[in-house]
Design a protein that fits this description.
Chain A: It comes from Halobellus rarus. The structure holds two protein chains of two kinds. By secondary structure, chain A is of the alpha/beta class. Chain A is built from 17 helices and 18 strands. Chain A starts with 16 loop residues before the first strand and ends with a helix. Classes of the chains: A alpha/beta, B mainly alpha.
Chain lengths: 454, 339
Amino acid sequence: MNDGPDPSGSFAAAPLVAAEDLHVGFGGTTVLDGVDAAIDRGAFVGLVGPNGAGKTTLLRTLNGTLKPDSGTVTVDGERVHDLSSKAASRLVATVPQDTTVAFEFDVRTVVEMGRNPHRSRFGGWSEADTEAVERAFEWTDTRQFADRGIATLSGGERQRVLLARALAQESPLLLLDEPTASLDINHQVRTLELVRELVARGKTAIAAIHDLNLAAQYCDELLLLSDGDVAGFGPPETVLTEDTLGAAFDANAVVSRHPVTGSVYVTALPEGRRSDSRAQSGRVHVVGGGGTAARYLYVLDAAGFEVTAGVLNEGDTDAEAARSLALDLVTVDPFAGVDSEAREAVETRIDAADCVLVADVEVGTGNLPNLRAAADADSVVLVEERPFAERNYAGPEARDVYDELRTRGHVVDPSAVPAAVAAAIEASASDGSTFQSAHQSPTNGGVAGDDSAR
Amino acid sequence: MSIRTRTVAWSVALSGALVAVGVASAGIGPVSIPPATVAKVLLSADPLPFAFDVGRTNRIIVRDVRLPRIALAAFVGFALATAGTVMQGFFRNPMADPSIVGVSSGAAVGAVATIVVPYALPFGLELQGAAFVSAVITAFGVYLIATRDGRTPTATLLLAGVAVQTFLGAVISLLLLHSGQSIRRVVYWLMGHLGGTTWAEVRVIALVLPPLFLLLLLYARDLNVLLLGEEDAHALGIEVERTKRLLLAASSVVTAAAVAVTGVIGFVGLIVPHAMRLLVGPDHRILLPTSALAGASFLVATDTLARSGPTEIPVGIVTAALGAPFFLYLLRSREVTGL
């Protein structure tokens, strides 16, 4: 298959797959509207995008099943749509999304079908055919199924068998349509690990993957399709940004780093958080730590309040939550106490806030300054799931500060937090709206805010 | 065991069974002839160097009366089972049979019209020729109806076939109304029959069937891949539309060659492939030859039953009477979800 026009080797530097200005439509509906993409040899490209963006259509166009209305697909220097079906399937192998096989073929027969592109109608089975099939079994760890009926396998096993069939085609390019769609999390990971191994063995793979985080974790590059066009193409961190995701998926997503894998991590948030659709207005500062406030951060943010948080230690659950919600956050180093810089920063936020929420947090000398700062708040809402005495590690001094907060504020049930905050903000607005607006400006210029808030 | 070894083993066994059924059938009838005598008659046939003395009567009964009929039954059973196997795979539908695209209805219209309408046929066509031509025209028409932009979706083809069959059924009913004296002949033809066969009638199908069967056998692997679905088949290098056209044309001609001679014999093409699939699996490289051979034995055996009663009945009645309960048994005892 490498009898291309240029044997000198400069050919290998060219991209393996080049799609140029692809337009594909069905009965008057345009599905792909000018897709351009060049994919290098040895890349694992994740095809992502919302439902109906044209991912499957693009795959079906790349493998020659669909003829584009205009534009070309070149694989290994050959125009796929000018080739016979047989020649095209020596260049491109496809693993279908639907892995059910209605007929009781045994696994070996199914994998051997992958040799069809290499066999002539009258030719027998050759040594090369046997080698390709055995290699496919080995690479996908499926030889033990060879004599079993395909219908007796589980979904994940069938997936590997169809991958083996595709490998038996010995094509440089592998296409996978939603290889993880119907699998449990364990098999999703195993399938993508396997594809990555195959890429390491020299294949080039393009996989439509609807799970952005799996795609980001396993793929070298992502191709984001939106409305039939390429909305982004490159390494995951450049493609999965809040802006591109917002535009492509019409969704509210937050992008962070996964704490374990280090890959880009997308969290979709429910509707209502976006600034254009905020139901509630007002600023809330949340004092928490150790995971006591994560829920309230989320709920208040979703309700439409402008939420700030701190002071929290880096790495704290609540700090992570605030970060993934893209909230204004004041942090200090892990295990460090609140220093004067952080204290100042948090006071600025509390001044600006219409209400301070104090979660059911454990208090030690390190975070006692948070409570002291909260004492300056316009209004205070406290959540108590345990008595303060049980979570006080800072002695009588802390008890005095807390008791004062308690007399000034409202103690509410966890479930009543959004309503209580809304009521408190309303009350403080009617008290002193001028006072509140006078404090708006310094918030954006907080010293620590620029350093430690994202 | 490799697929080739299995295919050869099954084919040899089924060929042996066909010969045994044929010899037994040649001995059964108003005049009973022992199998050894039948064998001697067969071995004394012209090109063979043997010359047994079996008596003139026996030789005439076996060679000129029973054997042509047995040979025709074998060819027709072979043809119908072949076409049924291909159609079930082609449509990926267990209810598909050889006449699914209207071949039998087309043949019936041609035959009935020839019987009923008292005009001479053009080009010197006789009843069988007319049936064959109208069968092929019908199948081609259904194909054209279902084809758009060079693509023939099997679901459309199936529905077009059903619609055309219904329409032709109405035409046949109308012809029957006006058949007058010839109604007995028409009904007899429609029921499917093998009576009064001469060697001349065997000749046509014996010439048409073998090359087409070999062609279909060459496409057995493609048919396997097509079973995975057209999308997958394309991804595995099958020229889907071209292959479908070829399979459809070859199996329609095979069916037409059979039903033109014998009328509509139901259930052979439906039941036999099913039964063989249960025995040998779905791989067409083994399924196609074994179904064909089993279909031949099945029709020879059922026709023997049909003619060994006090009065001869059309073989179509016997195949349906035996086939339908067997089919229901399969339906109940095994999940026939896929095929």
